[in-house]
Amino acid sequence: MNTKIFYSIIKPLVFCNFLLFACAFQSDSPCDAKALKEKAQKQLEPYTYDMAKLTRIAYKAKPWLKEIEVPLFIGEKYRLVFNAEALPKAIDITIYNHDKDSKKRKVLFSSKDAANKKMFSFDVSFMRKVFVDYEIPTGDSTAAGGCLVFMLGYK
């Protein structure tokens, strides 16, 4: 058998097997960022899309907190949307007017009031910035975590 013909058949077969193998591991991911963003975008309407942030969550032996600062323009109306459908264990999302070190800190929104919901939205205006806290509960550190999407829109 001619070696050129042999390699012209084998190379594409090996390449196709490699692609199938690589894609098999990617499809098991519990975090489909595109689908999460599309669902959040629907909740954003009639506001205009400004930005989105995907946050990966890992559960640890102790509860932990992740804080995100969101800068805003005074005079604009904003909607903050959170899609936590890809989280295997619920987290608490709380929005404050100041960071965690401030004594003037007040709760503007909390997801604790909405049990078993995976989508949240909150409208805010006349603020320079807000602080979003993700309170992650304890979990099995060997288990897979998840992710959530935060989306911001303005009017």
Strand content: 35-45%
Largest sheet: 4 strands, antiparallel
Q: What CATH architecture of the largest domain would you give?
A: Sandwich
Strands, count: 8
Count of runs of 4 or more consecutive helical residues: 2
The low-confidence parts are 13-29
Q: In angstroms, what is the radius of gyration?
A: 22 Å
And the CATH topology of the largest domain? Answer: Jelly Rolls
Q: SS-based structural class?
A: alpha+beta
N-C termini distance: 70 Å
SSE order, one letter for each helix or strand:
HHEEEEEEEE
Q: Roughly how much helix do the residues carry, as a percent range?
A: 10-25%
**Name of the level-1 CATH class of the largest domain:** Mainly Beta
Placed side by side, the strands forming the largest sheet appear as 1-8-3-6
Q: Averaging pLDDT over every residue, what do you get?
A: 83
The domain tally reads 2
SSE topology sketch:
Elements: H1 3-26, H2 33-44, E1 48-57, E2 64-71, E3 77-83, E4 92-96, E5 107-110, E6 119-125, E7 129-136, E8 146-154
Antiparallel strand pairs: 1-8, 2-7, 3-6, 3-8, 4-5, 4-7
Describe this structure in words.
The structure is a single chain. The chain is an alpha+beta fold. It has 2 domains: 1-30; 33-154, Jelly Rolls (Sandwich), CATH 2.60.120. The chain has 2 helices and 8 strands. The strands form 2 sheets. The chain has a 4-stranded antiparallel beta sheet, covered by helices on one side. The model is unreliable at 13-29 (pLDDT under 50).
